[in-house]
Design brief:
mainly alpha
């Protein structure tokens, strides 16, 4: 009789544990989605700022506005590097996620 009670208690724990694991997976997926969205938003904003710097450089080159052309060129280089770094970082995260998913499927 005592063995039957233990089996019932284990089933109850199994259900609760499954629910907790499912909730943890769901939260991890939401975290991944928001991380991707924020990363894409950041890249988009940097690309917009890069376009503005190119427009400003064009104006400065035509002598339509006053400003420092060298500073503008440095800003353009900075934005290009940042965009490249962010895209590389996002690709690395995707690769790690893909590799982890493959490992999980092999188990």
């Amino acid at each position: 009789m005592s063995d039957q009670k233990c089996a019932c208690v284990d089933k109850g724990k199994g259900l609760i544990d499954n629910f907790k694991n499912g909730l943890a997976v769901w939260m991890q997926e939401l975290k991944t989605i928001f991380s991707k969205l924020l990363g894409n938003f950041e890249v988009c904003q940097l690309e917009k700022r890069l376009e503005r710097e190119y427009a400003l450089l064009g104006k400065l080159s035509c002598d339509d506005a006053q400003g420092d052309i060298e500073l503008c060129k440095k800003q353009i280089d900075f934005f290009k590097e940042e965009i490249s770094k962010l895209k590389t970082e996002q690709a690395a995260k995707r690769d790690v996620k893909r590799r982890d998913n493959q490992r999980d499927m092999e188990l």
